[in-house]
Amino acid sequence: MARNHAVAYQALNGVELVAAHDHDDRAADRFCADFGIRRAGLSELLETVDAVSVCTWPASHAALTLAALQAGVHVLCEKPPATNADEAAEMLEMAGKQGLVLTYGLLYRHVFRDIAGLVTDVGRPYKINAKWLRRFGFPSWSATGYLHSSGGALTDLGVHMIDLALYLLGNPDPTLVHAAAWNHRTQEFYGQDTSTDDSAFVFIRLDNGCSVVVDVAYSTDMTDDEHVSVEVQGSRGTLLLAVPTTQTTFTPELFPRFHRCDETSSSFSLVSRRPRLVREAIQDQLADFCDAVRTGQPPLVPASEAVTLQRILDLAVLSAQTKNRTIGVNA
After folding, report:
1. Of these residues, 79, 127, 131, 323, which one is catalytic?
2. Rounded to an integer, what distance in angstroms lies between the CA atom of residue 49 and that of residue 224?
3. Is 97 a catalytic residue?
4. Per-residue pLDDT for 121 more than 50?
5. Which ranges of 36-135 would DSSP assign to H, the alpha helix?
6. What is the mean pLDDT of the segment spanning 116-134?
7. Residues 291, 293, 297, 302, CA torsion sign
8. For the chain, what are the domain ranges?
9. Backbone conformation region of residue 32, classed left if phi is above 0, alpha if psi is from -120 to 50, else beta
10. How many other C-beta atoms lie within 10 A of the C-beta of residue 236?
11. What pLDDT score was predicted for residue 23?
């Protein structure tokens, strides 16, 4: 993801990419050579720049973000926000205290930024089904190490699906969370009995009366290599969103569809507005961050909403680890 950020920053007017830091010296040298920038230690970097992207593994998100904010540097941190909600809340508090922008790489808000308003066409939403399923799609880099650091499919893929559902609904508050998670495929393919999940199911009830059902997996039995979709069901119909992940060109099947049924018929209609492709969304995300830094306007992903998201993730993990217990948010 750091390379995607670097490409996008270098394409923005009025933005200069100047340096990078990585604890891996060889990786840092390669990265800096590829983008024509200099390598810097963390302290030196934070003394040099106005803003940073934190694109490390999740376990270091909080420490690096807090260090940057304490140094007076604006931060775009990749997902998930942190390893727990207390860390995310501390990051939010520090950004507020310092008067700095803190936002997060919740990319699919930017993919559907121009389409979110269509949710009103379904009437009163009552259920969202969100899926990110792969036939065989474990992270290619150090699979078990990344799984452990990221928290697995639930917090790696699920974080995007949960956040997108909340965003489409106007960010209501959760009232209860129920989850189940499994690691059978990791054991089968990598021979490791790890506590980190490779597939998960999450049910979230929201205070607006809507429920969200999330199904994610690094590996499941299916024909396609990958299936990513969101369905918003409402009193007047259903909005069907195909979620682009690896597509480099736009194809007709990515257009949103509106489905309505009555006693005698069923109809589908295409929506003329299209989602952004991932590369376009990354560009929009970094432009949004830089605009927030320049103007003081809030970014598309406010840090306060990321705290709520992290709290849901925490409760989902807790539910899955405690024999699928349903957990009230205020419990």
Report:
1. 79
2. 44
3. no
4. yes
5. 42-48, 61-70, 85-98, 108-111
6. 93
7. positive
8. 1-107+281-302, 112-273+310-328
9. alpha
10. 12
11. 87
Both tokens assigned to 256? 């949103």
Characterise 41 by phi-psi region: left (phi > 0), alpha (psi -120 to 50), beta (else). beta
The CATH class, in words, for 112-273+310-328 is: alpha beta
In DSSP terms, 180 is beta-bridged to 201
Interior CA angle at 137 toward 134 and 141, to 5°? 155
Phi, psi for 276 (deg, rounded to 5): -75, 145
For residue 145, the model assigns a pLDDT of 54
Considering the chain, what is the average pLDDT of its residues? 89
Rounded distance between C-alpha atoms, residue 102 and residue 76, angstroms:
6
Q: Return all residues near 39 (Cβ < 8 A) that are at least 6 apart.
A: 19, 20, 21, 22, 28, 29, 32
Dist CA 85 CA 68 (whole Å):
19
Does CATH number 3.40.50.720 belong to domain 1-107+281-302? yes
- Pairing mode, strands 51-54 and 74-78: parallel
Tokens of 241: 């969103």
Strands 19-20 and 38-39: parallel
Q: pLDDT tens-digit profile of 186-200?
A: 777 766 656 678 899
pLDDT digits (tens, 9 = 90+) for 206-265: 999 999 999 999 888 888 888 999 999 999 999 999 888 877 777 777 888 888 876 666
- Angle in degrees, 0-180, between the axes of helices 303-321 and 158-168, rounded to the nearest 10: 130
